[in-house]
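Entry type: protein chain
Record version: 2
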Amino acid sequence: MKKFVTGLLSQWRYLWKVLFFLYLPIAFLFTGVGILSRVVDDVSLGFFLRDIVATGKLPFFAGFVSQIGGLLWSGSLSICLFALIIMQRRSSDFAGSKRFFLQGGIVTGTLLFDDIFLFHEEIAPSYLHIGEKVVIAAYLIMGMVFVFSNWKEILSSEYLILTLALAMFGASILMDTLPVDDLLVGYFWEQLELFLEDGFKFAGIATWLIYFVRHAIQQIETTQVKI
């Protein structure tokens, strides 16, 4: 027991800053949510804290494909940040790879935020008065900047996988922009459009994750050889 307590005190001396900056944002988050629950009409604290399926009293499987997609986005973001940190600590070389993973993390984090909070579908048009097409165009520009500023790194990687991911995202966006509601097509075609749009999107997210996982492994192994 004495050894356990001694270990706790020893770890506290060098971990207290890490724990402080971990719990401080959490404290701010819950404080802000508590304040919002008091100032926003007809909104309780549970409305912010509870799972959306429980809040909406929906079946447990409601939106589960979308949630899996969010997990895949989170996995890609974690891989980018992890690879970036490892490479920063192990070698002063590979500036292009570091930039690649940094920008890849930014792109992934942005799309993750959009997917979770429905930014281009709800927040931008309804609250910020920014058209959905404007936001999508901004994402396309961001993607092109990422590709063109890292083209050497991409050409040294398994770019077939990245090309497939981008092609599937493009197909999903194309299906999303089709004026299905204005065409007054039947129920079957509406469901087919939804099936293809979300199917291409999910496949693109999964392919995006595989690409960054494989490239991160290859680059980390390369830095180990160079040390």
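Comment: The CA atoms of residues 148 and 154 lie 9 Å apart.
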